[in-house]
């Protein structure tokens, strides 16, 4: 069992890094336009963290990031980001534990998966609200995912460093 001070330190560092990545999204990525769309970094953060931290801790982290995003960003329904990020983190942790060891390739795979989960949930919400423009929305989600995935080059090393540096022998 790890001491509480270790856990508080570790998750404080994760929180500060995530805050920095939120700032990257807001200050830099939101100003980059490709076909009228900007990269959307938020869904890949909980997935990459869950690939390093595992099912339980990664899911709690995703839940917290989802709640923060639900409070800050518009979504198709209340709790959208909390639901999407938690589901994506659960799957990401399972992939990291059973298929791919955490690292860049795993980070890329779970990021693509998280963007797909978020996009599919967005499409489902659109379908339930009337279903118009599903083809156009699908293409927009695909373009958004393609322009977001290069951000894995930044996110994976940040979370890997935290995971490795905050490792404990407990």
General description of the model:
This protein has seven helices and no strands. The chain is mostly helical. Helix 2 packs parallel to helix 7 (152-165). The longest helix is centred in the C-terminal third of the chain and has 25 residues, at 104-128.
Key features?
170 residues, Arp2/3 complex 21 kDa subunit ARPC3, 74% helix, mainly alpha
Number of strands: 0
Element-level helix/strand string:
HHHHHHH
Mean pLDDT: 93
Strand proportion, as a percent range, falls in under 5%
Distance between the first and last residues' Cα: 6 Å
CATH architecture: Orthogonal Bundle
Question: In terms of per-residue confidence, which ranges show pLDDT below 50 for 5 or more consecutive residues?
Answer: none
The CATH topology comes to: Arp2/3 complex 21 kDa subunit ARPC3
CATH class category name: Mainly Alpha
**Number of helical segments with 4 or more residues:** 7
Q: Helicity range of the residues? A: over 70%
Number of domains: 1
Decide which structural class fits the backbone: mainly alpha
